[in-house]
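Hello again, I could really use a second opinion on something today. I've been staring at a protein lately and its backbone has me curious. Please have a think about how the structure follows from the sequence. I owe you a coffee for this, so here goes:
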Amino acid sequence: MRRLATLLVALGLVVGGCGGGGDESADTTVPPSTTAVTQPPWKPFTFNDARFRVVFPREPIRSEENVPVDGGGTRKVIVYKIDVAIGEYSVVWADLEGGQVDAPVLLQEVQQDVLEEVKGTLQTSTDVSHKGHPAKEIVAKLADGGYLKGRIIVTKRDLFIVQATSPAPEPSRYAEFIGSFEVL
């Protein structure tokens, strides 16, 4: 599974830091004044091909690839990603059907690969359950000074990496994003 974890990171979790470059209204912070900025509502999207639903500010960019895995064969990997003004939000999905998966081992391998790929320094790592599925929540400090916050989730047939980058350890819409994530 190590090779699959490395390829997942290479395909979808290589983050461009916190520069964003996307829709300026999609993700903002509250200025230090007393006037709060009203953020536009995010919309739910269902991705039947990758068996999940989540909210995004607009339709994300989709990419797909079949990646080789240890022991031969390939696994389908799909990435849904969107850039926002101060970072990005993405979900990486891999098909694990037919494979024997040791969830704690896979969660640890993917976490390590994420850190290596983004040249990040682990700030926190917590074993959690995401709606009944084993998961790991991580926060990493990135080389550009920004942060990656993500949740790695394993089901009997899927691996998900749900993540966001921003200049702050807690991306402004992360709670809404991760809270909306559902396995179908």
The radius of gyration is 16 Å. Confidence is low (pLDDT under 50) at residues 10-16, 19-36. Helices lie at 2-13, 103-118, 174-180. Residues 64 and 78 are 4 Å apart (CA to CA).
